[in-house]
Amino acid sequence: MYTQSFSVPDGTEDAKSAGLKAVPKAMNAHDAALQAQFDARIDADGRIEPREWMPEAYRKTLVRQISQHAHSEIVGMLPEGNWISRAPSLKRKAILIAKVQDEGGHGLYLYSAAETLGTSRDQMLEALHTGKAKYSSIFNYPTLNWADVGVVGWLVDGAAIMNQVPLCRCSYGPYARAMVRVCKEESFHQRQGYEALLVMMQGTAEQKAMVQDAVNRWWWKCLAMFGPPDADSPNSAQGMRWGIKRISNDDLRQKFVDATVPQAKVLGVTLPDPDLKWNEARQAHDYGQIDWDEFWATVNGNGPCNKERLGARVKAWNDGAWVREAALAHAQKQQSRQMKEAA
Length: 343
Ligand code: FAQ
What we know:
Layout: H1 12-17, H2 29-43, H3 56-75, H4 77-81, H5 90-115, H6 121-129, H7 146-164, H8 173-200, H9 205-224, H10 236-241, H11 249-267, E1 277-279, E2 284-286, H12 292-302, H13 306-319, H14 321-342
Antiparallel strand pairs: 1-2
This protein binds Phenylacetyl coenzyme A (FAQ).
Phenylacetyl coenzyme A binds near residues 73, 103 and 160.
């Protein structure tokens, strides 16, 4: 349903013409030469690899974005994981288990990608567990019934793909490569959600009402998922100049709306926005106002499920302490045995 094409036009030229430099601060001749090399690579749309020189601000931005992304994947396992034991059939249970496991896998690729930038997994998890690190706002809302699981697949994974396909062309090699596999899997996630909803929409009036109710509750949250409007997005211009972000928050949001409207029609649901209509002049849909106050309240820890989600992650970490200790003790034992044998 969504293209996996990597040739989506991006906004890098806009950032260049806005006069943004890859790194803005003064530096000595050696660093200036390295900076010039880095800039030339970025301008040529090349890749930066882990052992290569990069400006500290570029490294920091990547650690921030990739670790937040990793946290989102593992916190994102919770709302759907909650439904594995209550899936309506063996087939749905098997699909859901596979999907939730995939999200865990995405978290692991992403933590690994962030580790290549010189941060440790322990540092990243500490930031998550203490509430210092952000993760996607969308996972702080509850999945109230089975239709929510379908809608999370259709809309949340659909929004995630829209955002992540351009990240396959991110200038940082390990992140871009991780995204290629993640996007393929997200595509399956989106389709399984949509298919589950198509089945429900052939069912009873109650089932159809459940789907519509779930769409009503998730639609606006999915639009907000793309992040604040471009004018209020402090990281966008620099992220685009560096070739980390390729398409702006608002442009991705618009693409998502335009892609979803016909899907909603096929499904037979109404998107809960009286202002949603085709604009012939713009060749795009107009849509209503997103509640940004509610979005920021959720990002800042006051959404309906923030405490529960963080509590679940901290508990999982604490409960797994003995596994980490045992694995470490085993590795140390192996190492000392090998050293004795070699001596
Ligand atoms: N939630 O200046 P910008 C998924 C923060 S994965 C929370 O525009 P930027 C798979 C932002 O961090 C979903 N915070 O920032 C799945 C920044 O704060 P900071 C996650 C948000 O980085 C499906 C501040 O607002 N995807 O769904 C959000 O240029 C189903 C200002 O914003 C990714 O992480 C938000 N929605 O753009 C799993 C993709 N939006 O850090 C399970 C990679 C913004 O300065 C089940 N990330 N903020 O303190 C990105 O593309 C970008 O980081 C954006 C934000 C677009 C999220």
